[in-house]
Specification:
Blueprint: E1 2-3, E2 12-15, E3 18-28, E4 36-43, E5 49-55, E6 59-62, E7 65-76, E8 79-84, E9 90-93, E10 109-115, E11 121-126, E12 129-137, E13 150-155, E14 160-164, E15 172-176, E16 181-185
Antiparallel strand pairs: 1-6, 2-3, 2-6, 3-4, 4-5, 7-8, 7-10, 8-9, 10-11, 12-13, 12-15, 13-14, 15-16
Length: 187
């Protein structure tokens, strides 16, 4: 058992008979009254995000998890297929367990989080950034750079993101897989 002082981003806990991952937290000590911890919890079974407030010193039940590196192989109508980089075992994971699956392309590495008690996969975390190519975008108008204007673009994985006007078809760019935002153009 842990308590609220052990709360950190990424911690997996059992709460209301479900497994949750803490994605954001804030310790609050008001002028009057007891301290508390405000959290955002993401359900590892449904993917829903809820807000919850724990009073200071509240006991929480943490869940032991293991992370393993897997390589994405392919997607079919049953789900997403991954291969363990060490044992070459293959597993199939449903789309709702993957954060931003539109950024996965064949051969990408991902980290799969398993419940250590029963070896069930809980979530799939992609690399924070991917280097990809722009496959389609409208041409930018020369001289139209007075503000940080963005235009839609399709990248090699098929996902649609927003990029600056100076990006053209064939440009290599870096994309943040957590937010889906353009980061920079690569040389």
């Amino acid at each position: 058992m842990a308590n609220t002082s052990d709360i950190r981003n990424g911690l997996c806990i059992k709460f209301k008979s479900d497994l949750f991952k803490i994605i954001d937290f804030q310790h609050v000590k008001p002028g009057k009254g007891p301290a508390f911890v405000r959290t955002k919890l993401k359900s590892l079974t449904t993917g829903k995000v809820i807000d919850n407030t724990f009073s200071a010193g509240h006991k929480i039940e943490d869940v032991r998890v293991e992370t393993r590196s897997y390589q994405f192989l392919y997607k079919d109508d049953q789900g997403f297929h991954f291969m363990n980089n060490d044992t070459y075992e293959q597993i199939m994971i449903q789309e709702n367990f993957i954060d931003n699956p539109q950024f996965l392309s064949d051969g990408d590495n991902a980290t799969i989080v398993f419940n250590a008690e029963d070896e069930t996969p809980l979530t799939v975390e992609l690399q924070p950034y991917i280097d990809t190519e722009v496959t389609y975008t409208e041409p930018g108008i020369k001289g139209d750079t007075a503000t940080n204007t963005l235009k839609p673009a399709t990248i090699a994985t098929g996902a649609e993101i927003r990029v600056p006007l100076f990006i053209n078809i064939g440009d290599k760019i870096k994309v943040d897989t957590r937010t889906g935002e353009y980061k920079e153009r690569l040389k």
